[in-house]
Every structure is written in C-alpha cells, then in structure tokens.
C-alpha cells in the first residue's frame, strides 16, 4: 500500500454507529464494529416460550405458567422473539436507524435478527411483513424502519416479503405512552393490504415493548384469514411498567 493509500484509509476509516469508535481495518463490517456486534445481548434464558421475555426480568419464577408480558395478547399472536435487549449498543443502533437516517443499518440488524431461534411449533413456510408506520411519519422520515428491517430479514432468511398491512389511522407514537394507553392508541389502526388467507406471517418491527401494536396487527391479519402471526423485533424493551401491569 502506498503512503497516500494508507493515509486515505485512515481519513476515510469508517466510524461505528454503535460506539463512534473507528472500525478496525481488518473488520469486514462498515457500520457496526466487531466489539459492538459482540455486545448485542440476546434476552437471557429461561424465557417465556410464547413471547420470549426473560423470566427474571418479568419477576415471574421459572415454573410459572402465566407470563405478565403476553397473557393479554390475542391468540392470533402466537410467538414473539427479539434479537437483543434494549441496552447499549442496541439502543443507539435503533436510534441511528430510526431517527438519524442510517437506513443501511437495517442490513446488519436484519442479519442479526435472522439468527433468532423459534420454538419448534413455529411452522414454515412463513412470509415476512412489516408493521406499517403512519403516512405522516413515512413522509417526514422518508422510510419505515420496520419495512427496511423486514426487507433485510427476508433477504437473510430467503423468505418472501408481503405488504400485508396498512395503517387506517394516524395514531400517535407509542413511545411516550404508558402501557395502559398503548392498546387504546392503536385499536383498529391496521387493516389488511393484501390477500393473507392461510398465510403464516412473521411480523417485523424495530422495538417490542408491551406488544400492543403487534397484537393489533395480528388481530387484523387473523380477521382477514391469516393462519397465524409471530413477531420479531430487533430489540426488546422493559423500561416502562405502570401499576396496571403488577
Ligand atoms: Zn462499535
Ligand atoms: Zn410471555
């Protein structure tokens, strides 16, 4: 390598979106460094077989059969899994994808989601569908991060993507709401946008908190004849817990 080449490499060295450190020259990744990739922590076992919530984070002992996270979900939402917990650097990566315009991050994050293991009952073949965003946010942001993750996951798992859902209302963002308000906020907010009869659908979103949005999507898909729905998100958050969830 010439001196100019070496200098150029140094100047143009990619910066990691998870930690802002320089990505090592030998690292094939361009967006997330090896150290950050290694720090992405899957929800620790044992987990709820249905929703994947770590039992020690829900305060439920390992032998209990009722999980407070998923007991109010509709039957149509059969399973949920997340690639990692909402903690550094995963929280920062989601922020970069969602609010900072780093669309290309959906590539590595979707590939990470492709490694999630499902229970044996989660049958194939399955198609991939994103949780739709509101038309207003789509306009403002120029993209739907859930759709980008869904596209990436479909590529990484060789499954078909289906534009299965659309928003029927401009519900507010769920982020600022308490759990009890979240279900009401998205009630009736989704409708089928394609023929989903008999389909087994893997629904994709960036963050799972209470599951209110996914529950509403699953109910709309089941009403339109879908066979079953399972949810996958990049991260799982446990930060908001009001008195209604005790
Ligand atoms: Zn990093
Ligand atoms: Zn559960």
What can you see in these coordinates?
- There is one protein chain.
- The chain is an alpha/beta fold.
- The chain is 31% helix and 15% strand.
- It is built from 9 helices and 6 strands, in the order H-H-H-E-H-H-E-H-H-E-H-E-E-H-E.
- Strands 1-6-5-2 form a 4-stranded parallel sheet.
- The C terminus is likely disordered.
- The structure holds zinc ion (2 copies).
- One zinc ion (ZN) binds next to loops.
How widely separated are the two ends? Answer: 62 Å
Total DSSP helices: 9
CATH topology of the largest domain: Rossmann fold
Beta-strand content bin: 15-25%
DSSP summary, beta strand count: 6
CATH class of the largest domain: Alpha Beta
Largest sheet: 4 strands, parallel
Helix fraction bin: 25-40%
> Could you tell me the radius of gyration in angstroms?
19 Å
Summarize the structure.
The protein has 246 residues and is an alpha/beta fold. Helices cover 31% and strands 15% of the residues.
């Amino acid at each position: 390598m010439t001196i100019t080449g070496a200098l150029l490499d140094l100047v143009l060295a990619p910066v990691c979106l998870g930690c802002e450190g320089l990505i090592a020259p030998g690292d094939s990744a361009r967006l997330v460094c090896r150290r950050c990739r290694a720090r992405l922590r899957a929800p620790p076992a044992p987990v709820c077989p249905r929703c994947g919530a770590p039992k020690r984070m829900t305060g439920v002992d390992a032998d209990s059969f009722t999980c407070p996270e998923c007991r109010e979900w509709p039957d149509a939402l059969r399973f949920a899994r997340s690639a990692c917990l909402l903690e550094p650097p995963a929280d920062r990566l989601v922020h970069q994808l969602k609010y900072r315009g780093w669309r290309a991050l959906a590539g590595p994050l979707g590939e990470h989601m492709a490694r999630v293991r499902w229970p044996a009952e989660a049958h194939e073949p399955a198609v991939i569908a994103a949780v739709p965003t509101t038309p207003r946010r789509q306009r403002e942001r120029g993209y739907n991060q859930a759709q980008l993750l869904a596209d990436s996951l479909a590529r990484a798992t060789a499954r078909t993507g289906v534009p299965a859902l659309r928003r029927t209302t401009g519900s507010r963002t769920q982020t600022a709401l308490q759990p009890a308000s979240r279900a009401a906020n998205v009630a009736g907010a989704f409708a089928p946008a394609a023929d989903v009869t008999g389909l087994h659908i893997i629904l994709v979103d960036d963050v799972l908190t209470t599951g209110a949005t996914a529950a509403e999507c699953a109910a709309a898909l089941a009403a339109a004849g879908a066979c079953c729905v399972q949810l996958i998100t990049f991260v799982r958050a446990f930060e908001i817990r009001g008195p209604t969830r005790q």
